[in-house]
Amino acid sequence: MPDMPPRPRLRSAGRTAFGRLPGGARSRILKAVGERAGIAGADTGLVSVVVVVEPGDGVEECLASVRGQSHGLLEALVCPVGSATAELPDDPRFRARPPAPTSYAAANQGIGAAVGDYVVLLRGCDQLLPHAVEVLAGSLAATGSDLASGVLEQAGEPERWLQRAQADSHDVSSTARPAQAERAADLTLANKAFTRDVARRLWLVESDDWLCSPTLAHLLPAATVDVLERPVARWAPDRGHRAYGARPSPLPHLEDALLRRDLVAAAVAGSVLAEGWLRHWYDVLLPRFVADAERADEATWLRLVELVHAPRTVELRAASRSLLWLTGQGRRDDVEALAAELASLGDDVPTELTEDGRPVARWRSVELPADVRRLADSETRLRVRVVRAGSVPEGRRVELFVRVEGVDLAQQPMHVTAEGGGVALDVVREVDHTANRWAMARFQSAAEGAVSVTVPERLARFTVTVRVGALERSGPVDLPPRPTPVAAQGPLVEAVTLDGDQLVVHLDRPAEGLRLRGPDTDLAGEPRRDSTVVFDLRRDLYGRQTLLPTAVHRLHRSGGLGVANGWRERLPVEVLGAHHRLRVLPGGDGPGELHLGPPRADDELGAYGQEQLRASYAVDPRSTDPGLWYFESFAGRSATDTPRAVFEELRRRAPEPRVAWGILDHGHWTPPGATPVVIGTRAWYDVLGMARVLVVNTELEEWYRRRPDQLVVQCFHGYPSKAMGESQWQARELPPSRVAVMRRRSVDTWDLISTPTPEMTHVYREQYGYDGPAAEQGYPRNDALRGPAAERTRLETRRRLGIAPDQTAVLYAPTWRDHLASRPRAAAMTEHLDVDAAAASLGDSHVILVRGHRFHAPGPSRRRVVDVTDHPEINDLVLASDAAVLDYSSLRFDYALTGRPMVFLVPDLEDYTGGVRGFLFPFADTAPGPLVSTTDEVVAHVRDVPALAARWSDRVRAFDERYNPWQDGHAAERMVDLVLALLA
To answer: Do domains 606-781 and 788-963 have the same CATH topology?
Structure first.
């Protein structure tokens, strides 16, 4: 792939001479240039990407994803709708079309102007994933098909109905249903590539939706389709403005969905797709509306009752059948109860076998006949994974994981046979708990499905048959090819093990120069005379001793490195140590990936292992331990914030309590005097059940059950300024059942809350309906910012970060963006500040400290830019810096304690205020610094920090006095007094 140009300078439409050339001329020139330059994709053909931009689309990331495609021979036609504007990269491949009145008119215009051999459609708020164009166009070029369909990855919390639609149509391994019949389940537009001729027959109309296009359905019966399992595009719900966890009701769109249902049915009538579309409607689309019955008015409810009577020949999942059956019976209360249960289960279904051996769903919320609860064939598929294949005198010994979906092998006996070449093969049953990690099933164990089959040398394929209850499932198993013998250069790895805090690589002879490399890790091994190389897994985390965190590593050696044949055949292998669990996977000629993770035991692995531990925790009869306290900060990612301040004050005055501190893995620091306990282990569940006091700063899990004599102290982790509680739940359009869940995991567990002032206590009481006690005289976490050690901490932190005394340190700390979240505690970091451009402009006189939110992933450091996202203590960074670039983060309330200046980079203020999150009170009233929108503006302000400080010092001082009246360095003392009083 050729080097990409530097970050583009944005400009208005590309009205260059090249852009005005006729389409055929442009196509010929692009192809000729591509072939001459050796651009990737020149042999496949030119691809036209049609980008439809509606008002409000943040199109820059979309265009960057197009520009960054590995298939370099492409053109991008940017097609605005109405008043939408789009600045194009300074790149001749991009050109703008005139505005169109509607999105479908814009798409048609773009398709009509496309000159590529293949056409890809994209919304301006979505993104192409890396290599998407190469994969889609490459498939069409190789097969000559009419269109290629990849998987649509979803940004934010996935729409489950869309996940199911994609799974139905893209699971090419399934034998439960004809794959061709299921193509109608995926009528989305943004994950496909069309030949130019087919694209021009795709004339979109008003009834077409990006997620369900009846016009596309008209093309499918006569089209040849390449179905790919690979994700190719990232879909942003609600044009990229929906917050994570939002649950807008689909019911207002019911009639539109019925119109598209009928249009698609007419388009595929008489074809093999008709059956698949009918199943998709009753099994995926209609249950989506029924599951929201709690928000239906009476007329809509009666409409749903009319719609749910599916033909008896249509195969439905147990959940869909149960919902539709209850609706048809008019049992609205039961529909709502089952829908709430299904929302908590996701796609996991608890099951059991009936007396006649049939698998059925087991619902806790409603009583239903077994025939209604029966699992569909698609829910009881055979799944087989080849784990490893080794040599034996008889041929090969193949180790497999075998399971039948929906069947708990820990509860139901399974009989496995194998046959190859007309001969029964020897099968040995085993138990391997790592199969549960592979199965990813919450309620069904796969550990008992570990088997080994001895296969004669002449066979390359054999058949496995599984019988469990009344089910029998069979499927082929292809043997992996034998590893090609390679004359390895350098020593051979014979094993990799753990020894305490060391990773030990066993070689066939002594060797120098072996390194362990991973994210932010490049360790030199210590060679020993016994042909081992030892890596010390301990690390210094800004002056705090920890171990390497969960990550994937590889072994490297400049002189070459191989793998001994005997050990290669045993891969993958797993080793459980005191502080890590090591997985070694095969890969290439040398050793493959080395996964270092938390030290979970075999029976703690996978969704099934966690479900069993939670079930045991829920019924644990043991009493709480009066001397045991549990602390957790940021869901185990760092020992910081108010929990740490409370812990240190507690240890200062009462060292006798035993303290357990929850961590994700041993790569996270815990303060001296606290015993680390890894989240998800049996020991952690025991602590949650037995601790007398729990001190946390994030919400507890949905399954947490507070014991009657437990005291839960909720410290929060930010000054209350953004929407929270009822305001946030309403902004996310959560249904009442989901609000009840949010209350159960938050306010219903609290016995004491920490707030900065009595005024803010009132806000929490108003937003959450909380009426319990509050520690409301300052945040303990801020004591360090006003304490006597503040200057010493500043100097020591700057030294560790390599900041010279005469350098200006600028802390850049953007907050969490709900709409960029990919799961509850992970989100992409906003890129409003071009950090590298700012650092280059400021020069060596400045250092930028990049601090992502605690749930962001750390990035690389480089000259004048230090990524401190993984720094365990934000107070150290506040003290070390001379100015801060913030946005909506509550860090501004803490930073004001230093008296130093702040700049607020808020180009998305209108969107954030109106839809993404929102505020409890106007943001500008709580932002004591300039509000800016660009990197250049930031640079202009922080270039001269003393001048910036002088201009804003009065505002910062008044802000501090208004919001931090109790921050006198003694808040932790007052809070611990209150906790001990409550215990007494």
So the answer is: yes
